[in-house]
Fold this sequence. Notes:
It is a single chain. This protein is of the alpha/beta class. The chain has a single domain, classed as STAS domain (Transcription Regulator spoIIAA, 2-Layer Sandwich). It has 4 helices and 4 strands, in the order ββαβαβαα. The protein has helices at residues 26-39, 55-66, 79-88, 91-99; strands spanning 2-9, 12-21, 42-53, 71-75. The chain has a 4-stranded mixed sheet. Strand 1 and strand 2 (12-21) form a beta hairpin. The radius of gyration is 12 Å and the shape is globular.
Amino acid sequence: MFSCTIKGAPEHPVAKLSGSLTLEHSRKIHTELLALLSQAEVMTIDLGESDKSDLSFIQMLLALLKDPDKKIRFANLPAHLLDNAARLGADAFMAELSNRTGKSA
């Protein structure tokens, strides 16, 4: 199961992703995130209530982070995401996520 709850101000929404961040839900996750990014200058993605992730989610985040016009921050990075990135040898990805964490609005 996957769900996305939006909180915060319209100019800086916080997307709280809950449940499984896996291939099964990748189309819905991608659609939700792109819709928010098209409407806001800054967005925070809160991953604290997610229970698992896979390569498809990591690839999605990598693609979003490559766009210099998108200002994305992260809150509550879960161990499963960092463990998956470590298994893939994605050190630069983990560093980028860590650099973008902080207090969400």
